[in-house]
Amino acid sequence: MVLSPPTINGDFRKQFDFPKVELHLHLDGAVRHSTLLELAEQKHMDLKGAKTVEDVKRLLVCHEPANLSKVLSAFDIFLPIIRGDINAIERIAYELCEDQKSNGVVYFEARYSPHLLSNHILGNFVSDDVYKAGGEVTPTNVVEAIHRGFERGKTDFNVKARSILCCIRGHESWTEEVLAMATNLQNLGVVAIDVAGCSGGADEQYEPCVIEVFKEAANRGIHRTVHAGESGGPREVLIAIKDMKAERIGHGYRLLRDPENYNRYAIEKQIHFEGCPYSSVMTGSVPLNWAAHPISQWVKDGVNFSINTDDPTCFDNTILTDIHIAYNEIKIPLEAVWKCQYDGARSSFLPEEEKAELIKLIMEHKPPNVVV
Questions:
Q1: Could you say which of 144, 204, 230, 329 is catalytic?
Q2: How far apart are CA 338 and CA 333, in angstroms?
Q3: Mind listing the pLDDT tens digit for each residue in 250-294?
Q4: How many structural domains is the chain composed of?
Q5: Is 177 a known active-site residue?
Q6: Does residue 371 belong to any structural domain of this protein?
Q7: Containing structural domain, residue 127
Q8: SS3 assignment, position 187
Q9: Please, what's the largest Cα pairwise distance for the chain?
């Protein structure tokens, strides 16, 4: 079945005109299609023959429910356009702030792999087909560039953004460096670590060395979120929570298959779940049956969760289109949509003083009949 995100009109924008928080957004999966086309043309790099923005969308955007590996294969096509280009990396961070502003987002955490955006890893240049015209770009250089883009975005659009650094399944040799950067680059807006899949490894079977890094992150007081229960099952969610000390779960839908542990961790312990409505169906994480979507159950059970986009480059979605799905298809009430912003704010990885300011801003727009 062919799908597309819903169209957002002015009335819908007005109805949901409260400050929004987004916690599960891949910066390297949130690049404008127009920017990719422009950069490809400037560098004389082929995007499989794409000549227009619509061509780029046809190439990259997923329109039918598939599986996670299929969706992530789009990154193999477009990441070479920006990888190793320090100016492009800063640009996409800045443009993301502008895009978030247009959808009413006041705070977001963008996750990315610094290594997948660099051209110089662990002391060596990577393969010949990666852009090197601007010289050496290390993972730390990537974080610095994104911070510059976010700071410019904050000044111009009044949107606050922070970085979550991703380990990548199948690239375990990078993991220790991710931990070191999360430890040492907090002055550059790094607030947490994550681990995610790629087209060659989207199974959530995280190696022992990755699990140990997350344990050490917990010892160091570094915040942790883990992709789990998207392509994997309840077992992977439990490993993330119990062994990897995850404070939040990226997706986590399939924990519902284990009622006992769903009750223990989602309902009783209130672990935060980063829900992504449109993505969840397009990656095959949940069936295309909006009425039975896990988010519907989460609302009934008072689960602590947020609504997020995941990878707009791959889905052509926005936070408003995912809210539209949650409200009009999954049928959660407006009050529950607002509470997702509240839950997102209180589950954010901001320092406590900044978190309190964000919660205060969200509370100032609380619907009158909501009790928190």
A1: 230
A2: 9
A3: 999 999 999 999 999 999 999 999 999 999 999 999 999 999 999
A4: 1
A5: no
A6: no
A7: 10-363
A8: helix
A9: 59
